[in-house]
Amino acid sequence: MTDKLTGAAGRQYVADAIRHALRSGDLVPGQRLVENDLVESYGTTRGAVREALQDLAAEEIVEIIPRRGARVRVVSVEEAVQITECRSALEQLCAAHAAERASDAQRAELGRIGKDMTRAVSDGAWDVYSGLNQRLHELVIEASGQEVARRHLDRLNGRMVRFQFRLAQRPGRPAQSLPQHLAIIDAILNTDPSAAARAAAAHLDDVIQQLQAPTDTAAKKARH
């Protein structure tokens, strides 16, 4: 008898756990992913671990090196900027569609997220803000009904989790990004597709600037 997760469930669990570890900073670019350690940590079979690593390699989150095993793929700043440029085009599309197609329930949730984000910044609750930020982007994509864009964004965002973690940790970053997020929400609630697309573009343009800025420069800018 075994309680280990197997098959598709184990495969998905390991992949999601590695993504979460990257998002939280528990895994870093270049770090080796040892199969035995993953089996023990996540309570799955070796087969589930191997399949999950193959899935993550296909998403370019992990790289598998012959005779050396797997490691977290290193994404350069230049590649991160290019990924964000692609994200921008897709998220503008989703924001515009969301402004036209969002249901009453989705609009109500967007309004709540905006209020909760504002409160989180006021309270200095950065972890809460980060979770709301992620939910906001997910909800805009859901409301858009653009499934092809969602699939592409899932793959792009998977490669960006480490950069997203680093940006979220910069002093003053939530307060800086809050008005950008509120502008997206307001445009969708006002059923204004053009304004929603512009707001999404402005937000991702700022992300690109933050990616390109030296860490100390970005931190100083965010404090002012």
Structural notes for this entry:
The protein has 224 residues and is mainly alpha-helical. The chain has two domains: 7-72, Winged helix-like DNA-binding domain superfamily/Winged helix DNA-binding domain (Arc Repressor Mutant, subunit A), CATH 1.10.10; 77-223, Four Helix Bundle (Hemerythrin (Met), subunit A). The protein contains ten helices and three strands; from the N terminus they run αβααββααααααα. A three-stranded antiparallel sheet has the order 1-3-2. A hairpin with a 3-residue loop joins strand 2 and strand 3. The termini are far apart.
Question: Could you name the key traits of this structure?
Answer:
Arc Repressor Mutant, subunit A, mainly alpha, disordered C terminus, 2 domains
Record the SSE blueprint.
Blueprint: H1 7-24, E1 32-33, H2 35-42, H3 46-58, E2 62-65, E3 69-72, H4 77-101, H5 104-123, H6 126-144, H7 147-168, H8 173-189, H9 193-212, H10 215-223
Antiparallel strand pairs: 1-3, 2-3
Helix pairs in contact: 1-3, 1-7, 2-3, 4-6, 4-7, 4-8, 4-9, 5-6, 5-8, 6-7, 8-9
InterPro entries: GntR_C, TF_FadR/GntR_C, Tscrpt_reg_HTH_GntR, WH-like_DNA-bd_sf, WH_DNA-bd_sf
Keywords: DNA-binding, Transcription, Transcription regulation
Pfam family, one: GntR
Rounded Rg: 19 Å
Q: Which strand order does the major sheet show?
A: 1-3-2
Give the SSE order as H and E letters. Answer: HEHHEEHHHHHHH
Number of domains: 2
Secondary structure category: mainly alpha
CATH homologous group name of the largest domain = GntR ligand-binding domain-like
Q: What is the strand content?
A: under 5%
- Which CATH architecture of the largest domain would you pick? Up-down Bundle
Number of helices: 10
